[in-house]
Design brief:
Blueprint lengths: L13 H13 L2 H24 L16
Helix pairs in contact: 1-2
Length: 68
């Protein structure tokens, strides 16, 4: 995200990544147009991973796809 001028905390866990990064990206219309689809794809892959290992109950709740 550094290349886009977005500064993140030193450590961001996988489960909280979307909740931290998405609002920062959505503040910039150009970045949102370019990157929100990639964030959506990341969420789907992350959810699929948790479902495939049978740990859906341990899946972070903040992982969701923004509609619209």
């Amino acid at each position: 995200m550094k290349i886009f001028g977005i500064r993140l905390p030193m450590t961001v866990k996988h489960g909280s990544f979307d909740g931290i990064v998405r609002p920062l990206i959505e503040m910039d219309e150009v970045l949102a147009h370019a990157l929100v689809s990639l964030l959506d794809a990341r969420v789907v892959l992350y959810q699929h991973f948790w479902n495939s290992i049978g740990a859906s109950s341990a899946r972070p709740t903040e992982m969701r796809i923004a509609c619209g």
